[in-house]
Amino acid sequence: MFSDKIDLIGMPLDLGVRELGLKIGPDAMREVGLPDILRNLGFDVRDLGNIPLPSIDVPAKESNHQVASIAAYCRKVAKIASDSFARGRMPVYLGGDHSIAIASLAAASAKFGRVGCLWLDAHPDANTPETSPSGNIHGMVLAVALGIGPEELTRVGPSHRTLEFEDVAVVGAQDIDPGELEFVERRRIPMFTMDDVLEQGLPAVIDRAIERVTAHTNRVHVSLDLDMLRQDIAPGVGLPSQCGFNVREAMYLCRRIAARCDIASIDIVSLNPVRDRLQKTARLSVELLVLLLGKKYSFDYQRYLDG
Ligand SMILES: [Mn+2]
């Protein structure tokens, strides 16, 4: 891990999908105690709060305006994160929709040069404006990071792309649009679906993904979309799925990444408290984040200790 000094950066961004509830995702993670949990585990934590969204009033379907707003917002957050890096601190981004990764990848590559990226997600987010069935930016973010997509977004980072094709791996994909499949196949991006996980086993899959993202890079950015989880354990996301990772698998995945990657920064995205039940998803997201940081925390065990 890059540093045990953590900067929590709330990004209540919902312009990439316009889904009611995403805006309060970062606060839901704070609500279950994230900053103090990390402090009690020995981390030096600064909570930079929620970075305010640009005030806009744009109809949901006018995606051009969303592109400009998302680009401006991500540029602003990337600057804040660059300051964190300059102070030797590791940014942890709390979303918000997956568009926040445009900011985090821009900041990581500005700091470390060539970075790898583990895209842990039920969706490869590899659409372009031409292929996207919904037109939602959150489904185009990985393509944008690879330099393909609306120019305003691909130019948020230090160059026209923040990732090289050979430095990316998608893990946990299950809902893949035809255009996305063509995108990842044509560019030979390893995409490990849940079927691959079933057939090859999770340890083999994650190790191959880690090998790929560490081979030519200085650091790894981990972008965790909570919709990679099964809906019964993580109902609080926009697009829940029945076939995602269970708790045991997700925890193994995070532990393995922590043990084998030199992590630059982490996104936790798609937490939607409006759809959550009894803060289940918020709690699990905190437990997974702690594992990615190389420690362990269990809400159940803590409750037992507290009597
Ligand atoms: Mn995603």
Structure description:
The chain has helices at 25-31, 34-40, 63-86, 100-112, 141-145, 151-154, 178-186, 194-200, 202-214, 247-260, 280-292, 299-305; strands at residues 5-11, 44-50, 90-95, 115-120, 168-173, 191-193, 219-225, 263-269. The model has no long low-confidence stretch (mean pLDDT 95). The chain has one domain (5-305): 3-Layer(aba) Sandwich (Arginase, Chain A), CATH 3.40.800. It is an alpha/beta fold. The protein is globular. The chain starts with a strand and ends with a helix. Helix content is 40%, strand content 16%. The chain has an eight-stranded parallel sheet, sandwiched between helices. The chain contains twelve helices and eight strands. The site of manganese (II) ion (MN) has 5 residues, from loops.
- N to C succession of SSEs: EHHEHEHEHHEHEHHEHEHH
As a whole number of angstroms, the C-alpha radius of gyration is 17 Å
Distance N terminus to C terminus? 34 Å
By secondary-structure content and strand pairing, the structural class works out as: alpha/beta
CATH class: Alpha Beta
Shape: globular
Low-confidence stretches: none
Number of strands: 8
Q: Give the number of domains.
A: 1
* Ligand types: manganese (II) ion
SSE arrangement:
Blueprint: E1 5-11, H1 25-31, H2 34-40, E2 44-50, H3 63-86, E3 90-95, H4 100-112, E4 115-120, H5 141-145, H6 151-154, E5 168-173, H7 178-186, E6 191-193, H8 194-200, H9 202-214, E7 219-225, H10 247-260, E8 263-269, H11 280-292, H12 299-305
Parallel strand pairs: 1-2, 1-3, 3-8, 4-5, 4-7, 5-6, 7-8
The protein binds manganese (II) ion (MN).
Residues 98, 121, 123, 125, 225 line the site of manganese (II) ion.
